[in-house]
Design a protein that fits this description.
Elements lengths: L1 H47 L2 H21 L1 H16 L9 H20 L1 H8 L2 H27 L2 H23 L6 H15 L3 H11 L10 H16 L3 H25 L5 H37 L2 H38 L6 H26 L3 H21 L5 H25 L1
Helix pairs in contact: 1-3, 1-7, 1-10, 1-12, 2-6, 2-8, 2-11, 2-12, 3-6, 3-11, 3-12, 4-6, 5-6, 6-7, 6-8, 7-8, 11-12, 11-15, 12-13, 12-14, 12-16, 13-14, 14-16, 15-16
């Protein structure tokens, strides 16, 4: 009898826990490489383009990633949480995909309507119609990419997730590399790399579908023991506490995405387009590689926490959060110390732009650490069904940072952005800590 119980109970716990450490390690390699290749894209672009043209590429990147994080990240998180939760309950097939797909399509249509309504403004910000069309096409292409990411994360297929984002970065960097080598030229060519990235990543989607078809059992796997029944009962109670359904969850995560991208990009968008935008963008570029790397942890953390809530309870949940926060703190301090000493020289050599302060870059690094801590606590909130409260905190932090930039309490735009980012992310992390403890 004991032998009969083990598979059913062990299966749920394996879904909840075994994939987290392995998944984070696999994704760390893939996404660390992706972050470095993305940095190389901007390094090559800065050497090929003049300050004004580079500023337009920076603006394109800022607008694109605000948009896709707001309209597509919610569906990725929704799929990841829902599929992981169902697998933890022993429901291994027939995952609901129609609802998330309809939400994704609705967001894409809303983007198209907004983009064409603001076409004149966007073309002014991007230096012409060419980059406007790159923005539109890239945004639509990312719809399938983010859907596949959520599907992979929910199933624990982290190697495919890593391959998807790595293909994106490799395709993107080929364009400025070709320009530096003299095979092409101009900001439009460099911008086309941003469009090529999601198109290349779609090559991974057939792998996802084939793997899914190979691994789905003929019938839903259902636990038959008393222990498994208890697991399902706890999961059903947890699901009931997450009232609001897919739509409300997606809207809340869209708000979180908007707040997060505003913290990263609003400083770029609120300074004059062109050279000034490029200067601020470069300072914040040092946060993007660590934040992109940390996606490996976040991506595996949400399904892990969703499973822990079902199978192992509060102590295991708190241990996972505590371990991640300690790692974030150590990493942020190390990066800040490194940038304090070597940051200005590194940006001058790698991005062809002098004039940065080590103290300012260290402030951005500490803000990045607070941002990573907030991201960790945010995943805890999502796993516990507190997406709406978390969204309110992210949007409040973004609004405060935007007001800081607009009110100009510090005259120098770069210093203002560096100090404001540190203050905003620190306040956000404290707010999410309070939500977590509550």
């Amino acid at each position: 009898m004991g032998a009969e119980r083990a598979p059913a109970g062990g299966e749920a716990e394996a879904v909840a826990g075994a994939g987290y450490g392995r998944g984070a390690r696999i994704l760390s390699v893939g996404i660390a490489t992706t972050g470095l290749v993305t940095f190389a894209y901007f390094s090559l672009a800065s050497y090929h383009l003049g300050p004004t043209e580079y500023g337009f590429i920076s603006t394109l990147w800022a607008i694109l990633f605000i948009t896709i994080s707001v309209i597509y990240r919610p569906v990725e998180q929704l799929l990841s949480r829902t599929i992981a939760d169902r697998r933890a309950r022993g429901l291994l097939d027939a995952h609901p995909l129609r609802g998330p797909a309809l939400i994704q399509a609705a967001f894409a249509v809303a983007f198209l309507a907004g983009a064409f309504a603001l076409r004149g403004t966007l073309e002014d910000a991007l230096g012409g119609s060419a980059l406007f069309w790159v923005l539109v096409a890239s945004t639509l292409a990312y719809a399938a990419s983010y859907f596949a990411r959520g599907f992979c994360a929910g199933h624990g297929w982290f190697e495919l997730y890593g391959a998807l984002v790595l293909f994106e970065a490799l395709a993107r960097v080929c364009f400025p590399l070709a320009a530096v080598l003299g095979l092409a030229s101009g900001r439009t060519w460099v911008g086309l790399g941003i469009l090529a990235a999601p198109l290349a990543s779609l090559a991974v989607v057939p792998w996802v579908l084939r793997r899914h078809a190979a691994r789905v059992p003929g019938a839903t796997a259902r636990a038959g023991t008393t222990r498994a029944a208890g697991v399902r009962a706890r999961a059903q109670r947890a699901g009931g506490e997450r009232a609001g359904g897919d739509g409300r969850f997606a809207v809340a995560v869209a708000g979180i995405g908007l707040g997060e991208q505003a913290l990263l990009n609003v400083a770029v968008l609120l300074v004059p387009a062109g050279e000034a935008a490029g200067v601020v963008f470069n300072a914040f570029l040092i946060t993007r590689v660590p934040l992109q790397l940390f996606q490996s942890v976040q991506t595996s953390l949400l399904p892990h926490l969703a499973g822990l809530e079902v199978t192992q309870g509060e102590a295991a949940f708190a241990r996972a959060i505590r371990t991640t926060l300690l790692a974030v703190a150590g990493f942020a301090v190390a990066v800040a110390l490194g940038l304090l000493v070597l940051g200005p020289l590194a940006l001058e050599l790698l991005l062809n732009r002098p004039g940065y302060s080590g103290l300012g870059l260290a402030a951005v690094a500490l803000g990045m650490g607070a941002h990573l801590a907030a991201g960790t606590l945010n995943q805890a909130a999502l796993a516990r069904g507190r997406a709406t409260a978390a969204a309110a905190l992210w949007l409040a932090a973004a609004a405060a940072f935007t007001a800081w930039m607009l009110l100009e309490p510090i005259a120098d735009a770069l210093v203002r952005a560096e100090v404001g980012y540190l203050l905003a992310t620190s306040g956000l992390a404290l707010g999410l800590w309070g939500l977590y403890r509550r």
